Amino acid sequence: VIKEHYRNDYKMFESSISKDFKTILTMETELRKALKEGQFELHYQPQKNIVTGSIVGVEALLRWNHPKEGFISPGTFIPLAEKTGLILEIGEWVMYEACRQNKQWQDEGYNPIIVGVNLSAKQFHQNDLVDRVASILEKTGLDPSYLELEITESMAMSNEEDIIQTLEGLRDLGVYVSIDDFGTGYSSLKYLSRFPVNKLKIDKVFIQNRKQNEAIVKSIIHMSHSLDMKVIAEGVETEEQLTFLKNESCDEMQGFFYSKPLPPAHLNTMFQKLTV
Ligand code: C2E
Ligand code: MG
Ligand code: MG
Ligand code: MG
Where's the EAL domain (predicted)? Predict the structure, then answer.
């Protein structure tokens, strides 16, 4: 069997993989270089309270500012970073930079908001994740209640003892945890009610095909509230979508209708200064 496998791999390699393989190696080298040379940037997308209209948070979204290619979106390089394990270093940088930036905004006198950081599966499954988060908060001076970690259903919905421990550790630390792209993965209602999770983020596919998914969106909103969680809609692009969400008592919204993800300097004008 092994021989058979090997022969097949070899054939594939000969025929078509060769070029892709080279591209992957190049990309891995480039990713390492990007990290070393500071080619990564975070853009931030505002999240609004639907009732008051004020900005309550921002989601940090990774951008690779490649010297030749320009901005490369995370969808194209995160999967490779995940596969090679480089995501751990990249993710650590993201968390540090997002906390640092949020603290800076607070120091500049803006109304404190929450910064959301996406965690990859590898990051979430690190044994010392809670310590790493604690250490970043300490180094940057950001209060834990202004950091929210986004995980996906597939990372959380399991009975494994260490997952529950990680989630409880994060809760005890005082950071928030939300479930990203909610509705696209496999959720177990049993775990959902038991897990210390603060917020569900309704995936944008349900918002954008709203008419077709009306019942689903309503159910997610009502379920969140019954479980004492907040709920945010992702990918809100039209006024019509926003009105629907408002009528259904969705707490928060994020999407192009209000703002695209922006470099930090562009956000200052949208933030409110604390009045003294
Ligand atoms: P996500 O966490 O679900 O982030 C939301 C994505 O939807 C972002 O894409 C955002 O630009 C996009 N978006 C926001 N509003 C709208 C809208 O109204 N319409 C449409 N069509 N799209 C909207 P982006 O920035 O390309 O990120 C894609 C994914 O890459 C993210 O999905 C997240 O899973 C991953 N990602 C981004 N940054 C990081 C990171 O620092 N670490 C990890 N592990 N993953 C990241
Ligand atoms: Mg996200
Ligand atoms: Mg999402
Ligand atoms: Mg996602």
Answer: 24-275
